[in-house]
Automatic annotation (TrEMBL):
Its EC number is 1.2.4.2. One of its GO terms (cellular component) is cytosol. E1 component of the 2-oxoglutarate dehydrogenase (OGDH) complex which catalyzes the decarboxylation of 2-oxoglutarate, the first step in the conversion of 2-oxoglutarate to succinyl-CoA and CO(2). CDD domains: TPP_E1_OGDC_like (cd02016). InterPro entries: 2-oxogl_dehyd_N (IPR032106), 2oxoglutarate_DH_E1 (IPR011603), DH_E1 (IPR001017), KGD_C_sf (IPR042179), ODO-1/KGD_C (IPR031717), THDP-binding (IPR029061), Transketolase-like_Pyr-bd (IPR005475). It holds the Pfam family OxoGdeHyase_C. PANTHER family: 2-OXOADIPATE DEHYDROGENASE COMPLEX COMPONENT E1, 2-OXOGLUTARATE DEHYDROGENASE. The gene is sucA. This is 2-oxoglutarate dehydrogenase E1 component. Belongs to the alpha-ketoglutarate dehydrogenase family. SMART domains: Transket_pyr. It comes from Candidatus Dactylopiibacterium carminicum.
Amino acid sequence: MRQFQLNSYLFGANAPFIEELYETYLENPASVSDQWRDYFDSLQNLPGAGRDVAHAPVIASFAQIAKQGKPLSSAVASPGMADKRQIGVLQMINAYRFLGNHWAQIDPLKRQERPPIAELEPSFYGFTEADLSARFNMGSFQFQEGSQASLREILEAARQTYCGTLTVEYMYMADVQQKRWIQSRLEPIRSTPSFEVETRKRILERLTAAETLEKYLHTRYVGQKRFSLEGGESAIVAMDTFVNTAGSLGVQEILVGMAHRGRLNVLVNTLGKSPKMLFEEFEGKHVADLSAGDVKYHMGFSSDVNTPGGPVHLSLAFNPSHLEIVNPVVQGSVYARQRRRGEGAQNQVLPLLIHGDAAVPGQGINQELLNFSQTRGYGTGGSVHLVINNQIGFTTSDPRDARSSLYCTDIFKMAEAPIFHVNADDPEAVALACQLAIEFRQTFRKDVVVDLVCYRKLGHNEQDEPMVTQPLMYKKIGQHPGTRKVYADKLAGLGVIAADEADAMIAQYRDHLDRGELLYNPVLSGHSRKFAQDWSPFVSKEYTDECATGVPLSELQRLATRLTEAPEGFVLHPRVAKIIEDRKAMGAGELPLDWGMGENLAYASLVAQGYGVRISGQDSGRGTFFHRHAVLHDQNREKWDAGIHVPLANIQPEQAPFQVIDSVLSESGILGFEYGYATAEPHHLVVWEAQFGDFGNCAQVVIDQFISSGEAKWGRQAGITLLLPHGYEGQGPEHSSGRLERYMQLSAENNWQVCVPSTPAQIFHLLRRQMVRPLRKPLVVMTPKSLLRHKDAVSSLDELATGQFRTVIGEVDKFDAKKVKRIVVCSGKLYYELLAERRARELKDTVVLRLEQLYPFPNDAFATELAKYPNAKDVVWCQEEPRNQGAWYWIASRQHLARSMGAKHTLHLVSRPASASPAVGYYAVHSAQQREVIEGAFGPLGQDQAPRF
């Protein structure tokens, strides 16, 4: 028992201390006591250990001891091996590194009381006043020269470093090198910056610009929404530091994503947008050439600015009202730009995301983003995150109700990102934190966070009254002089500026605003960027369905050969081997093409032609329904580099890039990423595939606020393609419908294309049309499931070699056109069931047409098909979906079918009855309903007709 008492500090919660001590020993054996050094030296003799052994052996050793609940045995160390006072000092240093942030002075409103934390008190380790002058080894805590310092000096340095206006959370990070890097930057200077006079004046100038712009707008445009930055003006200091530090470290492009708060200020004072242009937007004079446009605090902007390291291109992404959904969009755009640049690009293109305090933990999209931030298909080398922490969230929220964690930034710990918390009233500390954040990201290429703790002087918007729900907080805010005044008084007191210099800065800035100009404008006019994309071939193009997409037969055969080749000795799964053998026969013309072969040939022809292809989704490499097999797996090897073969990436030398990514289990984040990629790369076919069509439900915000409306709101073009498996096959409510009705409802102004291809040739031409045609519009495809291997859903190589995507496919059997009385129109897999039924009944007066493109509706092509049957009076729209779903309401309300019909025609509907659920879950009920739909298309027609609007 006595031995256990002597060594109890080695157990449980003190494991981090042991690890820290061991890492200190590895760096400098002389920095630890003789007893510990002897013990750690003995670890070097463990089997497999060497001088540079990692800390795992010592942790494992102590873990085993703790697991057994036994004291340290004499075989490991003697009872008197350690000086407990020395151990206490090192434990206390470690405690400040872990917990010192809880005592940090980071709230400019000084509302929070310092919580009692025993581990931060010297008495917790048995020290008294008499011990303060005693000298101890500092371990890895290097705040001054030498290896020893008095307890008083150590305590003072620890508190200055971790309990001041700048603190950092980082000890949860596993990488010791990264932790040491942070310690080496903060501990020697005690987290206290020491800037030159010019830098301090620059900080004051940035604060002045931020505050003066807000006050100018507040008085000039009374009551108008602008989502003021007042109370958080140090964010402009942060942005200035980010840009200039990044530029000096080789960054050439910075893409910024942010919501409303402070956006106008960033546009003007960071990106250099003309105040005159902003004023015109407030006054409604600036009308962009857009069909819809957007409010001023959603608009994006780009500029090239000068930095100490050279020009940097800044882009502020267009952002909808959703607070955080722009973040993966920015990441996708960054990823595309980095791939364009090639090697070393992660240090040249930087994502910078600006968050609000309540939105960071409140919006699940952030968790999705952090989850894939370091993955192979989505990693951009880390993002820099700035949290404008108003300490209030929206307006009425209390932190106790806004989150379950202490800090709003705790979510970033899942990515092991260091988090710098800084008091916005200390703009020099803000600048230091931002400088370190950029340096950390550039050094380690991972996420890093600056939590700018400030306040919001006004309400959520300028018409809000926060005093109603936050009276005490806003009394303090009302008494606060403002960050600019606090800092200006400090500089004046230090003699850095003259007493009247700060007021002169305000007057000078206001004078320039009166003229619609900026006092300081960093924008470089006429700067030419080497890696800029030219979108001019795709701008202002009239929509057309026409496009020659055929590929010569000899080329198709060559591509088929390349698609079916695997490296020597590569062992395929038997089922996959059969598919590859069948594809060889398809390429030789011995078998008709199935869907997977038609799709793969489309991708192969595009990469051979110089168009990149990127496909992502859950299980996209193999294909959810075992049809694509774009990635082949060696059955004898699982290592990624050696165990896979991607035929589409090996079509020919000098081909365009091909990527297929089995994405993380995420929809909104991944689709937002792919949309961002598509907005930055017009020469790549960018495909997002839902595992089932209904997975688009979870990505609806991206579809609604970006993909369907981005061009109308912002003039933002993107050729992104959505593959949404759709079809009623008894799979239940969630695995039947791709929710076609939603995409139809969002269709207007030729904003995108909604197609339901039914053959391999159709998907081949459709995917090729998406790139070959000089037009970049999103494409929504309702793809099949059972048709992937349907005996009739096949095509020939000749169909791929000639022709193009057919928006309407007419009757395939021979009929006497004059005897046709009924025309059944449908889409998707239902066609094959209707065709089989019609043939079984041997009907000679009914034809079946396939509508392959629902939007834009092919009026001319459809009218041409109707005209072939002069005596047909009944036109039936037949769909699998319930009446209130699918394409019916859209077709009926717009009268697209009726517009192509004559006065003699009557339009009828055959469908499932209206339903609150997309489909039934009982297979027997499904089968009965499906049978009723098929029979209804050919049976007596009732009065269920299209309304005449």
